[in-house]
Structure formats: structure tokens, C-alpha cells
Amino acid sequence: MTDSQTPSGAGAATDEAPVTATAAANAPSAQATGGRSFLPKSTLLRHLLVLVVCAVGAVILLESTSPFRNSQFATLSYYAIAAGGLTLLTGLNGQISLGHGALMAVGAYTTALMLDVERGEDPLPLPLILLLAALAATVVGAIVGVAAARLHGPYLAGATLALAVGLPGLAIYFHDTFGGEQGMTVRAPRAPEWFTSFIDTVSGNPASGTKWLAYVGVVCLLITYFFLANLVRSRIGRTWRAVRDQDVAAELAGINLGTWRVLAFTVSACAAGLAGGVLAIVVRLAAPSGFTLVLSLSLLTAIVLGGLGSLLGALLGSALLVFLPPFVTDLGTEWGLNSTEAAQLAPFVYGVVLVAAMLFAPAGFVGTIRMRWLTMRAKRAMAASAGSTSRG
Amino acid sequence: MNVTLTGLTEGMVYAAFALALVLIWRSTRIVNFAQGSMAAATAFIALSLIQNGQSYWVALIVALASGFVLGAVVERVVIRPVEGGPELNAVIVTLGLFVAIQALIAIIWGSSFESFPAPFGLEGFQVGDSRIAFTPNSVFVIGAVVVTMALLIALFRFTRVGLAMRASAFGQEVARLLGVKVGRMLTLGWALAAVVGSLAGLLIAGGEFVYPAYMDSLIVFGFVAAVLGGLDSPVGAIVGGLILGLALSYVSGYVERGSALVNVSALVILMVVLLVRPGGLFASSVARRA
Amino acid sequence: MSLFAAATVVSSVAACGGGDDDSGGGGGGGGANEASDIGITEDSIKLGAHYPLTGVAAPGYSEIPLGVDAYFDYVNENGGVYDRQIDYIYRDDAYNPTNTSQVVNQLVLEDEVFAIVGGLGTPTHSAVLDFLNSEGVPDLFVSSGSLLWGDDPETNPYTFGWQTDYMSEGKIIGQYIAEEFPDAKVGLFLQDDDFGEDGEAGVREYIDDQIVAAVRYTPGNTNVGPQIAELQASGADFVVGFNVPSYTALSQLTALQLGYDPQWFYSNVGSDTELVGRLLANFSQGAVGDASVLDGMLTTDYLPTVDAPDDPWVQKFQEIWESNGDGSDLTNYKLYGMSMAYTTIQALQAAGQNPTRDDLVEAIETVGAEWEGPLLAPFRYSEDSHMGTGGMSISRLVGTTAEEVRPVMITDIGDAEIEEWDGEETAPPENGIPDEPAFNE
């Protein structure tokens, strides 16, 4: 049962991928193909179309997979939201951050505080809470961004590393407000009635709490990626790339480097805050031990493995984070290891995969595929031209 | 008084670890996140020897030697291919190593607490009618770090190999033209850094407990100390380590419930320093521009 | 599907007829085994758990499931529970609540376990408390002494505590100090979370005026020099520690360094003398000598420990560990796991031959308070309370063995009185497997 689901689940995840690819792509090649296809010319319209297709795909995906896969997609969605923001910062604007886990913590604690109401009272509507979570992280991100804009390379890495380790400590110090080490339990909002009837019409599956959370996550993911994809293609995105690649030229052209760097940090912090909000309701807890350095490093890993600067890459990298460890553990158990040995195997394989991926596919998943494709096309073009010249 | 002394000893260990990071940064422009796991691995090798009846000093030497080999192998096998590539790729490789080595330690030695003996006494010196938080072992820790730093400075200043290493770090092409075997120098840089890291690992383990993840907090504080001092400067690493060790000890000792604030204060200190001097306290040059 | 079910029922009836004698469950018998709820088939029961098997919290805690596994293995060899084999799956959460939520989702939704037993940790388990209760999954014997698991069964009807909660423990310690050391100046060495907080609250109920200092450490920060120095400066001559074992050793080493020598009283969690002694003993070159630093230390117990090799329960578990363990030494962590597994078997037997998840909960509420087992005092289970055992004895470490200085006292949270427990010491059943009747017969 479980075995047969693993490949189908993984397959489904990649099925969805190519669709998002168009939305996510910031490569010139995608622009070229976009131009001659039947898709609308306007970027916004094209992205809207892709969004609708993705939304339909997501519903099909969530309705055709088991509740456990649903819960994994919920997990995937918060990783991917944060990774999407980070890939924009690191890939597009060239700033490294080891501290996005801390920004997620800001979003998560905001959500936890907002949902922490007296029994009988109604909390604010969920979309508003998530918006506030994103906003809180945006504010913190802007402050950090101002400091970060002055720093380069390892100094920025060091500062954000200290952020990742330091900020959750505040939750322990102010334990009356934030619940200390034990954290704040989040009473996940129950599914509204319209959702139950929606699921009933679409698939007839029971609309469990897990499913509701998966939908919340996926909807947030789609909205975030829609905004980010448009941002990447806008004048702002182009300016960020200019700041990354040609900072001197950009400065000469009248671009204030600092302002743009702060803006990039702020936008990615906003995504991290939303991811934190989703995390809080999916995990149902905001606790310091959930926002260790490991989280920040995982996000970085996801975007580099997937392909730096690509939203699709961020999504695929996040999928690896979510699906690889349980897969390895189950494999280990099948090989006759006991649970403890299998559990120890998972981080080992994960580490080795990271190293191997960087050695053999340094451009990440998306980058490598894209390169292969371009080389193949170039070769074919050469062969074709060679053929025509010899004939001529 | 006691708070200062514990801070001093703690700071020296941060300093040693920061020194290892600085060495690697100087030679290959890579921040080695795997440093902690590599050090932990050598500490476990030493522990196995000690548990089999070898003396502390034999174990120490074997551990440092295995650190040297480990550093060289790591550089040759997995770092060389990503050198000169995108900065982030090297970071991810060292992160991967960090996770993999730590998992390997757990697989080989199991994940339980083990005590690691200290070479010298753990009872504080008697001053007047009270004991102070300064033990023979603290003297050893501080002495070992100071000697290591002196040796490294001597190596870089006064020997041919040191000169060649510095040359390879600052200008690979020029060094190559001058007949320096750059590749070999980079490997040597990593190997030496791993030895220093391993020393830091053994020093912090002495008189405490080891388990596969025991170096985790040291990676963070070591890195913060290195950045604080300016990544290029060995002296900066030592000063950064001491500042951090003392400051964290004061926060923990004199602030109500300060233990919870230790990590936050590391952040605050680093931020303040970097805002004033974006290249760290001992930055040797202004930020490079394209 | 129905065809398949019918076929297996027949085969299990046959199996039942043959093996009824050595069936673990008492009473019952006769009827056929059915797949009465999720995770239960005619011949198996699936149970799940989450533990930190990797990462910073793995040392020590990762040994608990080994004990649980060995005991279940032993029960399975002896016929299982109502002829059902126990299928025990434990997964790694690395002590990170985010991971706990993922692995418990996997256990409940993919592995489809009947119940979760012995999930470890306060922040980690908090993350799944709401999920398990809203899905109606029995959440038994959480490995943590937080009050969360038992004091509000109305909100969390499926969750049960097991070990003595930290507040009751604090009260028992506080009363002991008030009566036996009325002139002591007491310092508290506390972990900065609910563990330290609940413990402190309990202790203060009795000796608030005797306390001269309370210091807190944050787990992960290994420099406790400032905290111990503060205790020393305050003039405390009696230190009560609510801390984990590694910090017992750290505090001892630091105290040695500073020449600080108060009377130490470590709460149960931190007083794993076997572990701490082993840690300290290895510092022989560092002049600590032997485990003598621990000599005279006071501690509380709710379970027999490996320091008491003559205890019949320890002997029984030792025997089982030797036959079904992985060949390593028996430790207190493994002993804890085996004792918890013992209670789990009692609960499964009491739930009846073909239990639903709700039967299991009802069984514990109805008859759980009567179970006898390795724990020194009975559980407090009822419809109104899901708190685990409320009793502890106090002992002093003399050499390498523990001497009881105060018999088992029982109490409850809040302002409940402390009373001496008048029950008798229990002995393990001949074969080491409980034999509880079904609660509804």
C-alpha cells in the first residue's frame, strides 16, 4: 500500500512541476518559448493562466493522494513558500541569508498569538492572520535588511547565522508572552462549511482537518509564487539582477544599491513570515526548538539543490527536503535495520546527496536540466546547419 | 571574578575554533561548516584510544594527525571540484559534510553521552580561603591555544611554506607563475585548519561530555567570533573569541535569567560590531569592489 | 474485501483455539479476534511512537525505545496480547516539534497505528496533542512529566501521562526538606522551561521562605559556571536541581571547580546515577577520582533503577533484556522503556479482546488506577484525571547503592495533601507479563 504510493506521490509532484516552471522561469530561454506559444503575450495574463492551471492541478493532486501525502504537501508548502522568498534574495539579488528560519519564527509566533484567544471568542479570520504574520516578518526583515545591505559574503552569512540562533532565544526569555521552551500551542482553525461542501462536490472524499490545512498551505503557496513570479519579471526583478551582476554599472545608472538590497530582503522576509504562519497552523505549535539553525540551513539547501534563482527549483528542492528523509528511513527499515539505525541513516544519506549534487550538478536541478536542454538544442542546430551546408 | 575566568576559558576555545575557520577562509575563501563535525570525529577517535587504555597524550597526537589527514582528504576529494565556483555551492558542500559526518559518528560510535577525560586537574586553584574557577586544565587550554597561534604566525611569517601558502591564498595565478604548487598549498591549508579545529574540539571536550552533536554550538560561536574579528585575521579570531566568551559569560552571570539571553547577545554584539565595521574588528582591507 | 476478511477470521479462530492457554490477556477468550479498529487486525496491533534518535537530544533518550521494543518482542514470543502480535514502530523527530508533527502524521495517517505510546518530550509532544485528540487516536503514557497530559481530560480525552509530574515531585521534595532540613538555606538549579517551573512551584509550596536563590540554565548552553557561582555566593547549603542528567554532571564538575560543596538533591530526571556516575568516573585523570562526588546525594524515585540490582522488577527486566535486547548493558533509560511497555500491555489487555480506540481509553480510566506494576505508587487515572503516577520515594546515594530515606509518598497537583502510601510492594508475575482482565467483563 505504502510502497505503491511512494512513486505515484512523487510522480504527481513532478507532474505539477512543469506547469509551475513557466511561471517560475526567469531564464531567457523560457521567454523565447513563451513568445511563440499560444499563451497570452502579457506576462500578468500568462501568469494568471498558469495560476489557474496550477490550482486545478493542485486540487487533482490533493484529491487523488492519501491523507498522509496531503499532510506532506502541507509541509512542502511552507518550506516552498520560504524557499521561494529566499531564492529571490539569494539567487536574484545575490545576498546570502542563513537566518530565514528566524523570520519564519516571527510569522509563526504572530500567528500563534493571533489565534490564542479565550475559549468561545472568535479569532480574526485566517487570511487576515496570515497576512499579519507576513507583515510582522516584513517589518523585522526590513530592519535586518538595513543592516544586511552593508554586509558582504561571509559577514552577511555570520550576521544572519547569529540571527537564526539568537532570535528564537527571545521566546525563551519572554516566556510569559511566548510560552518559553515549551512553545505556544496553536489551535488550528477548523475547516469552514463551504470547504466541506466543496470537497464533497469535487471528489466525495471526507474533508478532514489535515486536508483543510493542506489546502490552506497550497493556496498560500500558489498566491506567493504568483506574486514572486510577476515580481521577478517586472522592472524590480531586472533591477535586482543588475544589482547582483553589475553593481558598479547599476550604481552608475543611478540605482541606489542599498535601497534595492533592503527591498529584496524585505520581500523575502514577507514570504518567510507567511511560511511561518502556515507552519504554525500545520504543526500546531510555535516553539523555539522548531526554529533551529537546521531550518534556515535546510531552506538554503533547498534553493541551491533545486537551482538558484528559480522558483521551480525552490519547489523541487523543498520537495526533496520533505520526501527524502522518510523515504530513506523506510528503505533502511526494509533492509532490516532497526528504527534507530534507519533514523541515523537518513541524515547520512541526506548529507551525501548534498555533496554529490554539488559535485555533479553544481547548477542545481533546474539549472542542470536547462543547460542540458540548451546544449542539446545547440548541437541539433549545429548538426542541422552542418547538414544544410554540406548539401549546399 | 569567577564569571570572568570561566568566560576567559570558554572564549579561548571559541578562539581556537575561529582560528581554524580563518585558516580555511584565508586559503580557499570558503567557510567550513563541517569543521565542527570533523573535529568531533577526531575527538571520538581519541576517545576510543583512551577507552582502550592509551594515555591522553597519545590519543591527542593521533587525533590531531587524523585531523590533518581528514582535512587533506576532504579538500582533495570534495572541496577541490567546487573551489572557484559559486560561493554558495561550497557552502552547501560543507553543510552536507557537516550532516553526513555527524550521522556517521552516530552510526559508528552510537549516540550516547561519553565522558572525555581532561589531562589536568579540574579543581580550581586556591586563592585565600576560596577556590576560583580557574583550574590546571584551564591553564592547559589557554596555553595550548596561545602556542598554536604563535606557531601559526611563525609558520606564515618565517617559513617558505607559510609564504607560499599566503601567496596562493592572495593571488593564485601569480603564485602559480612564481612556481608555487597552489593545489598542494590549498590542501595543506585545509589540513592545518582541521588540526586546529580538532584541537579546539579536544579542548572543549576535556572534562566534559561528548556526543555526536556536541560541537554544534561551537560552530555558531566560533563562526561569530571569526566574523567578529574579521575573517582574514588570526589575531582577530583570538580577540573575537575572547570578547565573545567574556561577554556571554557576563550576560549569563549578571543578567536575571541571562542564560536564555546568551544567543541573543551574540547576535547583538555581532550586529553592533558589523554596523560600525562591516568587515569585522581587524578588517585588513576595505570591502572589495568589482 | 469482505471475502478476504471472512477467510482470515476463520484462520484466526483456528489459531485462537490452539494458543488460548498462553494468551496474554486474562478473562476474555472464547470469541474470535476481529479487526475491531484502525491498527488492529486479527493477529496484530500496531503501535507508534516518536523519539529523538538523532541530534542533540538523542543521547540517552534514544535508548528508551530499545527497551520498549525488547519488552514487546518478549511479549510477542509469549503469545502476544489476545494472540495478537505487537507491531511497534518508532520514528525519529530529532526533538524538533516540526518533525514530530510530520512523523506522527505518518504514524497515524500512513502506518495507521492503533495508538501512540510513550511519545517523548514536552515541546515535541505538544505539537501533536491537538491532532491526536481531534483524530481520536489514543495517546498513551507520554514520556514527560508536564502537567499538560493529564490535568485537562475534557480538552484532551485521548492523552494520558505516565511518570510523576514535576509539580507533585517538587511538593514531595519540598515537604521532605521542610521536615528534615528546616534550617537549610536552599538554592534551586533549574532548567529554564516548564520542567524547572513546575518543579519550582511544587517546592515553593513548602519551603518558599527557605529558598535563598533560584538560578536557571538554558539547555544547550554548557557553561553553567555563572549559575553555580551565584548559588555559592548566595550562601545556599542545600541545592535542589530540576535538570537533565548531563547538567547534573556539569553542575557537579563546576561545583568541584569552585570548591562548592552543598547537600545536593537532584530530581528524578537528572539523578540517573548510573549514567552520571559513569560520566564522572571517566574523569579519573582529571582528579575527580571515582563517583564519590555523588556520594550522599539525595534523589527521588518512582521506578526501581539499575542501582537496585536486588529489586525483583529490575531482575525480571534484566532477564528479559538479556534474552530480547540488543546485547548492550541495561540502563535506566531502557528500564524506563520496558516499564512503560509493561503498562501498555496492561492497558491493551484491559481494553478487551476486540477493543476500539475508545475502549482503550475507557479501560485506562476505569481500571488503570488499580494496576500493579514496576512503578512504586499507583496511577491517578480516572474520568477526571489522566495524570500518571503521583508517588515517589526519596533515597540517598551511599557508595554505589541507593538507600531509601523516606518511603513512597503520594500526592497530586495543586494544593492536594501529601500522604504516605500504604500499599504493598509488588512483585512481577512469574513470566514477567501482566494478566489483566478486560475492563468491561
Structure, explained:
- The complex is a heterotrimer of chains A (392), B (290) and C (441).
- Chain A is mainly alpha-helical and 392 residues long.
- Chain A is 79% helix and 1% strand.
- In chain A, helix 5 (100-115) packs parallel to helix 7 (153-173).
- Chain B has one domain (2-214).
- Chain B is built from eleven helices and four strands; from the N terminus they run H-H-H-H-E-E-E-H-H-H-H-E-H-H-H.
- In chain B, the strands form two sheets. In chain B, strands 1-4 form a two-stranded antiparallel sheet.
- Chain B is globular.
- The model of chain B is unreliable at 286-290 (pLDDT under 50).
- In chain C, the strands form two sheets. Chain C has an eight-stranded mixed sheet with strand order 6-5-7-8-9-10-11-12, sandwiched between helices.
- In chain C, helix 9 (245-258) links the parallel strand 7 and strand 8 (263-266).
- The interface between A and C is large, with 43 and 42 residues.
Question: What is the structure about, briefly put?
Answer:
The complex is a heterotrimer of chains A (392), B (290) and C (441). Helices cover 79% and strands 1% of the residues of chain A.
Keywords:
heterotrimer; A: 392 residues; mainly alpha; two-stranded antiparallel ribbon; 17 helices; 2 strands; 1% strand; globular; C: 441 residues; alpha/beta; Rossmann fold; 2 domains; four-stranded parallel β-sheet; 13 helices; 15% strand
Topology:
The complex is a heterotrimer of chains A (392), B (290) and C (441).
Chain A: H1 2-24, H2 28-36, H3 43-64, H4 67-92, H5 100-115, H6 126-148, H7 153-173, H8 175-178, E1 184-185, H9 193-202, H10 209-233, H11 235-245, H12 247-252, H13 257-283, E2 285-286, H14 293-306, H15 311-334, H16 339-360, H17 364-391
Antiparallel strand pairs in A: 1-2
Helix pairs in contact in A: 1-3, 1-15, 3-10, 4-10, 4-13, 4-14, 4-15, 5-6, 5-7, 5-13, 6-13, 10-13, 14-15, 14-17, 15-16, 15-17
Chain B: H1 2-28, H2 35-51, H3 56-79, H4 87-109, E1 114-115, E2 126-127, E3 130-131, H5 136-158, H6 160-170, H7 172-177, H8 182-205, E4 209-210, H9 216-229, H10 234-254, H11 262-276
Antiparallel strand pairs in B: 1-4, 2-3
Helix pairs in contact in B: 1-5, 1-8, 1-9, 1-10, 2-3, 2-4, 2-8, 3-8, 5-6, 6-8, 9-10, 9-11, 10-11
Chain C: H1 2-19, E1 44-51, H2 58-61, H3 64-77, E2 85-92, H4 97-110, E3 115-117, H5 122-135, E4 139-140, H6 166-180, E5 186-191, H7 194-207, E6 211-217, H8 225-234, E7 238-242, H9 245-258, E8 263-266, H10 273-281, E9 298-301, H11 312-324, H12 332-350, H13 357-367, E10 391-398, E11 401-410, E12 419-420
Parallel strand pairs in C: 1-2, 1-3, 3-4, 5-6, 5-7, 7-8, 8-9
Antiparallel strand pairs in C: 9-10, 10-11, 11-12
